[in-house]
């Protein structure tokens, strides 16, 4: 199992526990809301008792429907929060990887996003300072299977926190982790949702 896979497993374990806790708290909150609504309904029972039976039934039906809606919304909000927490944790784990693991991931991403022409790759100031020795050679070895592809490392830092930006003339491809997670947000949310609640 690679370091990246271990990190994913750790995130999954933490996420499952966190999601269970959030859902449990949301259900408790929803039950409190329902109990409060029932208590309020009982207080108004004397007023309601004077109304015809069909009106009483309509009032109770609305109260139950409203309470059920609040419960569903509370649980849905808790699930969304759990999903967002997992995705944010994954981003933080990636940016906090040891240099070797971090730049192994960078190489995989470069292979996936490199164009078949000469270009420049820009890193954050932090990443520029910790580039592995001979990383330019490692990069070009990684893209050699792509016809005409080559990359030079820019000495100018990019305004990103992690990942990189590929520059081909006037075209820039933002491969920062923030951007990549943003592009894949829906797909990631679906996968995390399936894992946590599926």
UniProtKB/TrEMBL annotation:
Keyword Amino-acid biosynthesis appears in the UniProt entry: no
Alphabetically sorted, this entry's keywords are: ATP synthesis, Hydrogen ion transport, Ion transport, Transport
Q: Provide GO CC annotations from the record.
A: proton-transporting two-sector ATPase complex, catalytic domain
Asked if Nucleotide-binding is a keyword of the record, the answer is: no
- Pfam families, A to Z: vATP-synt_E (PF01991)
Which example biological process does GO assign this protein? proton motive force-driven plasma membrane ATP synthesis
Q: Superkingdom, according to UniProt?
A: Bacteria
GO molecular function: any one?
proton-transporting ATPase activity, rotational mechanism
User: Mind telling me which SUPFAM superfamilies this protein's record contains?
Assistant: V-type ATPase subunit E-like
Q: Which family does it belong to?
A: Belongs to the V-ATPase E subunit family.
| Function comment | Produces ATP from ADP in the presence of a proton gradient across the membrane.
What protein name is recorded for this chain?
Answer: V-type proton ATPase subunit E
Source species of the chain: Herbinix hemicellulosilytica
């Amino acid at each position: 199992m690679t370091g990246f896979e271990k990190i994913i497993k750790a995130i999954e374990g933490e996420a499952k526990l966190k999601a269970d806790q959030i859902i449990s708290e949301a259900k408790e909150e929803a039950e409190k809301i329902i109990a409060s609504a029932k208590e309020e309904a009982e207080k108004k029972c004397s007023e309601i008792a004077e109304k015809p039976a069909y009106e009483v039934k309509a009032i109770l039906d609305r109260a139950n429907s409203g309470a059920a809606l609040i419960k569903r919304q509370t649980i849905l909000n808790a699930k969304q929060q759990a999903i967002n927490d997992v995705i944010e944790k994954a981003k933080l784990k990636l940016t906090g990887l040891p240099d070797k693991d971090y730049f192994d991931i960078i190489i995989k991403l470069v292979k996936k996003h490199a164009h078949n022409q000469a270009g420049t790759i820009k890193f954050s100031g932090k990443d520029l300072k910790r580039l592995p020795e001979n990383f330019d050679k490692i990069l070009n070895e990684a893209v050699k299977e792509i016809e005409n592809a080559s990359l030079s490392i820019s000495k100018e830092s990019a305004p990103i926190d992690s990942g990189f930006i590929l520059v081909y003339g006037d075209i820039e491809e933002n491969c920062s982790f923030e951007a990549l997670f943003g592009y894949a947000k829906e797909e990631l949310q679906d996968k995390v949702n399936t894992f946590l609640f599926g």
